[in-house]
Design brief:
alpha/beta, DNA polymerase, domain 1, two-stranded antiparallel sheet
């Protein structure tokens, strides 16, 4: 056991790490597109668009529907409508990955402080966490619109740590994508990468301290990172 005076923290990404939200993201996107008389985007294609924030998501979805634009007013209106539809049904088809509730509870019981760092809009993130019963697990949550910058900038992750009162040297970050790998590197925090998420690059080509197939193995990965010589 680590001395109780030493703070330990784990910060998680959300989409593709704790939950598979692609079906609900696709529903909200396609409802927004339908309002503009644009064709829908298949859910599997939407899956490849998730992770870089709402602005990028709007650009990609509109382009996939035949409307390539970077007009700020158009993108802002589409984002507002997307968030409206998403907030109306945030977890209709969202799946919590196997082992997530149990592992989060076990880590809390062991004294870990848990945080969440996501590019998903902050208000929708909280709706999802509340609906899925995961909100009590997290000491601090930073969403994609909580700050003027988003991942892979290190500052969202470092802000989570600051709000938890934990130094980055006592933290491990758990995510699933290129964005998460770059975020951890920028923050100089050890990284656990889940293989089942939304990465567009082959996972084996991504640099992480530990790569896992199952969320249930996260506690073992933390032990490996914290005690590399044992």
């Amino acid at each position: 056991m680590h001395p109780p005076s030493v703070p330990r923290a784990v910060v998680f990404d959300l989409d593709g790490t704790l939950i598979d939200s692609a079906p609900d993201v696709a529903f909200a996107l396609n409802a927004m597109l339908a309002e503009r008389d644009l064709p829908p985007v298949p859910a599997e294609q939407v899956r490849t668009m998730i992770g870089e924030g709402v602005g990028v998501l709007m650009e990609k979805a509109l382009a996939a529907s035949g409307l390539a634009t970077r007009d700020a007013a158009t993108l802002a209106h589409c984002a507002a409508r997307y968030k409206h539809f998403y907030a109306s049904a945030p977890v209709g088809h969202t799946i919590v990955y196997d082992g997530v509730p149990e592992v989060l509870a076990a880590l809390q019981a062991e004294g870990y402080r848990l945080g969440l760092c996501t590019n998903k809009p902050h208000t929708i993130t909280h709706l999802i966490l509340e609906a899925l019963g995961l909100a009590p697990c997290f000491t601090a949550v930073v969403g994609g619109e909580s700050l003027p910058f988003r991942k892979p900038d290190a500052r969202p992750l470092l802000t989570v740590l600051m709000r938890m009162g934990v130094e980055r040297t006592a933290c491990v970050y758990v995510g699933d994508s290129e964005i998460d790998v770059e975020t951890a590197r920028n923050a100089r925090v050890p990284m656990v990468l889940m293989r089942y998420g939304y990465a567009r690059t082959p996972v084996e080509a991504l640099a992480a301290d530990v790569k896992l197939d199952s969320f249930r193995d996260v506690p073992k990965a933390l032990a490996m990172i914290q005690a590399p010589d044992t």
